[in-house]
Design goal:
The complex is a heterodimer of chains A (111) and B (120).
Chain A lengths: L3 E4 L2 E5 L4 E7 L6 E7 L6 E7 L4 E4 L2 E6 L4 E6 L8 E7 L7 E2 L3 E6 L1
Parallel strand pairs in A: 2-11
Antiparallel strand pairs in A: 1-3, 3-8, 4-5, 4-9, 6-7, 7-8, 9-10, 9-11
Chain B lengths: L3 E4 L2 E4 L5 E7 L4 E9 L5 E8 L5 E2 L8 E7 L2 E6 L8 E9 L11 E2 L3 E5 L1
Parallel strand pairs in B: 2-11
Antiparallel strand pairs in B: 1-3, 3-8, 4-5, 4-9, 5-6, 7-8, 9-10, 9-11
The chains are: A mainly beta (111), B mainly beta (120).
Chain lengths: 111, 120
């Protein structure tokens, strides 16, 4: 089955700096890669996703890049703000399949 | 984005009782719903996948007789934890996935806010 590894497990940055979280996956048939943000005591919220026919996607301060050959994808957050502090999960799945999640990254943005 | 609700948000029960958690997709038809369990500071663990009108598919190691899942309509799935024990205390999260309507693909999952279950 699919195996997703996520790094780092914790990340601390100063407000205004950039944050990068990386994930690798094992199943070359996976074609959908979402990123979720989870705040304490709440459910995960989809913040951005990318499909295997695209190499990069951007939405304001958030971007995701995908390298299909190397089987890794990354989340980039620029101009970080304290409200970006949360746990971020990456995931991988095939079309209409179930998702496999990474172990999560706790991001702390210091004011 | 699509909205998924869960009820209750928090429940405390005595050991041996059963607890039902509801998951509703409010503005789209969910052909598939997923139930996850999450322990503190850990990732989401998939418990089961349910498709409307058919039996749920449970992940290895999840007792189907203990965690009863019903997906009776395209907007509602329920998880019943039967004869709950303290080790069942956890954060239970559902997610819903619809079809191609509204610009969404089959992949996109939308999560509920979660239910905190505490068994005394």
């Amino acid at each position: 089955g699919e195996n997703v590894e996520q790094h780092p497990s914790t990340l601390s940055v100063q407000e205004g700096d950039s944050a990068v979280i990386k994930c690798t996956y094992s199943d070359s048939a996976s074609n959908y890669f979402p990123w979720y943000k989870q705040e304490l005591g709440k459910g995960p919220q989809l913040i951005i996703d990318i499909r295997s026919n695209v190499g990069e996607k951007k939405d304001q301060r958030i971007a995701v890049t995908l390298n299909k050959t190397a089987k890794h994808f990354s989340l980039h957050i620029t101009e970080t703000q304290p409200e970006d502090s949360a746990v971020y999960f990456c995931a991988a799945s095939k079309e209409a399949g179930k998702s496999t999640f990474g172990d999560g990254t706790t991001l702390t943005v210091k004011p | 984005g699509a909205v998924v609700s869960q009820h209750p948000s928090r429940v405390i029960c005595k050991s041996g009782t059963s607890v039902k958690i509801e998951c509703r997709s409010l503005d789209f038809q969910a052909t598939t719903m997923f139930w996850y369990r999450q322990f503190p500071k850990q990732s989401l663990m998939l418990m089961a996948t349910s498709n409307e009108g058919s039996k749920a598919t449970y992940e290895q190691g999840v007792e189907k007789d203990k965690f009863l899942i019903n997906h009776a309509s395209l907007t509602l799935s329920t998880l019943t934890v039967t004869s709950a024990h303290p080790e069942d205390s956890s954060f239970y999260i559902c997610s819903a996935r619809g079809g191609l309507a509204g610009g969404r693909s089959y992949n996109e999952q939308f999560f509920g806010p979660g239910t905190r279950l505490t068994v005394l």
